[in-house]
Amino acid sequence: MIKKITIVGTVALCWGHLFAQLGADIPQDRQIAQNYFVQVKATDAPEFGDLIIRTARFFINTPYVGATLEVGDTEQLVVNLHELDCTTFMETCLALSRVVAAGTPDFEAYCRQLQQIRYRGGVIDGYTSRLHYTSDWIADNKAMGMVEDMTKAAGGRPLKMQLSFMSTHPDSYKHLKGHTDRIDFMRQVEARINDSGDYYYIPKEEIRKNEQAIRSGDIIGFTTSMQGMDISHIGIAYWQDDVLTFIHASSTAKKVIINPESLRDYCAGIKSNTGIIVLRGMPVLPDGQ
To answer: Can you point out the beta strands (E) in the chain?
Structure first.
């Protein structure tokens, strides 16, 4: 049985202390990262989107495993490159691509990027500091300069957020159940997002006429009609033989795959899907700016 390796971090820990928690016995996740850094180099990808695609393809056939972030009772930075779900796959591709583009291809730099991407303001401060809702993730990562929301420019229409699922279904979340303070915090997060009016989506019936605005390497969020939810799935756009599809960690295939259907056909086949959000990952410049 493969043991998951995690890095424990709190606000009080400096990066040097945090990485000391790894110890001398380097886990297989570090080795996977090193293999990636050998195979994928910024010079092989003229555009940042190309680098994200090379990163995504590196993880083809990696097993799909859900809930890999729900480790232990203390919120911690989970580093798991050998098991991915749709969200951790996307975060992994973005974080690794950013450190390669920045000219800092090493495991510690990857972990720093991952924390910046996954937590509000890049700070681990308990369960609610993790960006659970994709819409919250989008807002924070836009503010941090990690992504640009391209949806409106790609033909998107206003999307009215009506989030409520986490605060109304706390028993569905191990670390929310029985924690009134955390539930109240998530209710505030939901209200802030619902009131923002800053979200757009491309209805699934309009993907065909707008798809030329989507580039390989863009992050695709699949909007849903499920009550109280925003995004039901995440993938990475991929133009293959002039057909727009996507790469994702598939719960159906149980691994990372290039989706065999086009993006628009995939959306058309899911009743609860209402459309897509399009984000563009942003690189870290080599000078750190």
So the answer is: 6-7, 77-78, 147-149, 157-158, 200-203, 219-224, 231-240, 243-250, 255-258, 273-281
The residue count for the chain: 289
DSSP assignments along 220-286, one per residue = EEEEE-STT-SEEEEEEEEEETTEEEEEEEETTTTEEEE-SS-HHHHHHT-TTEEEEEEEEE-PPPT
Cα 250 from Cα 258, distance rounded (Å): 9
Q: 241, 194, 191, 251: which is closest to 216 by C-alpha?
A: 241
The model's pLDDT over 101-127, given as tens digits with 9 standing for 90+, comes to 999 999 999 999 999 999 999 999 999
Cβ-contact 230, 176 below 8 angstroms: no
Q: What are phi and psi of 157, to 5 degrees?
A: -110, 155
Q: What does each C-alpha distance from 7 to 74, 81, 157, 231 come to in angstroms?
A: 11, 13, 40, 27
C-alpha 265, offset from chain centre: 23
**Cβ(120)–Cβ(72) below 8 Å:** no
Query: Which of 42, 109, 93 shows the shortest CA–CA distance to 218?
Result: 93
- pLDDT tens digits along 269-286: 999 999 999 999 999 865
pTM of the predicted structure, to 2 decimals: 0.89
Query: DSSP 3-state assignment of 32?
Result: helix
